[in-house]
Amino acid sequence: METLNLLLDGFSVALSPMNIMMALWGALIGTLVGMLPGLGPTSTIAILLPVTTVLGPTEGIIMLAGIYYGSMYGGSTTAILLNIPGEVSAVPTSLDGYPLAKQGRGGPALGIAAIGSFVAGTMGVIGLVFFAPLLADQALKFGSPEYFALMFLALTVIVNLAGASLIKGLIMGLFGYLLSMTGVGLTGGQVRFSFGIEPLQAGIDIISVVIGLFAISEVIKGMEENTKSIAVGKITNIYPKFKEIRENSGAMFRGGLVGFFLGLLPGCSAAVTTFLAYDLEKKVSKHPERFGHGEMKGVAAPEAANNATSSSGFIPLFALGIPSSTTLAVLLAGFMINGLTPGPTLFEENGEFVWAVIASMFVGNVMLLVLNLPLIGLWAKLTKIPYGIMGPVILILSFVGAYSINNSLFDVFIAIIFGVIGYFLNKYRWPVVPLLLAFVLGPMFEKSFIQSMAMSKGSFAIFFTRPISLTIFLLAIVLFVLSIVMMRRTKSRVKDAVGSDVEITE
Amino acid sequence: MVADRVGGLISIIFGGLSLYEAFRLYPTRLSFYVGDHIMPGVIGIGLIVLGLLAVFVKGQSFKVEFPDRQMLRKIIGIFGVLLGYCVLLYFLGFAIGTFIISIALFRIIGSYNFRKSVIFSAIQTVCVYAVFVYWLDMPFPAGIFNL
């Protein structure tokens, strides 16, 4: 009951005109970047992060969260209409979505995708309302050893996102950690890794690194690949029949459940959950032979799983401070920029903020459903913007975003350097996601380790003699094995679907 | 693959730097495991070990394709333009700097003629200025023209 009261308080904040506008902007920008080539939610959030310091934490994070879940909606459009899944997680949607589009049922497929996304997104936020405070409440009992175990668990994600080479993934993770150590040390206040360069004494800002690795290098990549604008053609009759919605409601619900519960596990990305939801739907179907040839349930289930995963990812983020995906890692940086520390104390110390953000997700999901279906024609037109225009716009926004972090040209310089590094890393297949995750989690990892060592006077037994800490370590091992199995399975499914090896880095 | 070996060597160099920092900070420690030196030490060892593995373990072999000369010039040009933006922003201010740099970017990325590039650039500058300076009140250098 108390949770519901807090949620209602959250609605009173989320429904203020400014916050409604921010949720709307976030949802619309998210949908757009989900559809457009060359700019994903991670780089968009990074570019716009400095803006949140001007807007205020609640308004800013509401907008950024809107971009995150809005992009999940946007990704389905090109997957269904053009057979171009922008992310690996959209591949299952295209398996049946594109055949449906070829049969002239692209409009209803988009409608079902939007409704499925709404249903599962809302399910996910309901889960977030009840699970996150419970988890945060339990996590209040955590001491430094438990936090260290938790960081260890979170970092096992790196192994999964290492791409084709584990060695390369681990090196990138360690390199990210090394970058995060630049600046003043956490224990003794000693300056590290500055080598006499004054601006480095304040440390390297993660936003500059993300803008360089994800936005600038992406523009160069797009330019090199001669990215063309995409024309999705005229779309008519986007509203599915009520009978179709009813027939697909089970698929939406099952997809939502798969996405939600598996999305809670670190390393279990939307790429994994969407394929699992698709395969589950095929298994329970009376007509599995229809899958791959234009079965509406093959669109409803993965789209639902995708959005439920994005919502459930907020649970470990809010309650434990653990990002389960790259985009959430950047969002975590956004919390920190605004002086907020995600974790068990977030609900106690910044209750009004966190409940307002959660309430805004309900508002944003409704907005996406109400606005996106009628606006599909407009989105289709926007995808025709040539890359020759998109590229300069992204670069100028990246520059402004990097500069605005500290009003410093040094941050811009760092972004440009990482743009160059990102270009070569991409060419030689060195994964950048482990770098980012280790950069974000590094300081928490170090702090909890040093505090634990200080508590135990240098004995490592502290990690294995405390029940919660030991349980988390065991859980980390189980999840590590489980996630490797699931990732292998997903890679093999992706290969079956697209005909070649694709690195899953989300 | 040669590139992986080069990556491994770079990892060893960074590992060495990290170990150097660990040794430098070691005297400031509170205990062996408590201090600013411990993680640089751990990361340093990790980077060196993994770097050695990258050098000696045979990795996945694949062909890296670089763009043709013209595209390569464009890519280098973009990075040059972005660095130039840093200078222009400081001396000419946000509005004029953005306008000039946008023209260059539209020319390089979109291959638009000068007239079109100026028009697109003017629109982009007005939009960016309206959002970031007027609406969000973000401070940018005004340059010698105080714009």
TrEMBL record, chain A:
Sequence intervals crossing the membrane: 20-39, 46-69, 109-135, 147-164, 170-188, 200-220, 257-278, 317-341, 353-373, 385-403, 409-425, 462-485
Domain of life: Bacteria
Phosphoprotein keyword on record: no
Sequence ranges assigned to domain DUF112 in this UniProt record: 20-437
Keywords attached to this entry: Membrane, Transmembrane, Transmembrane helix
Protein name, UniProt field: Tripartite tricarboxylate transporter permease
Species of provenance: Brevibacillus invocatus
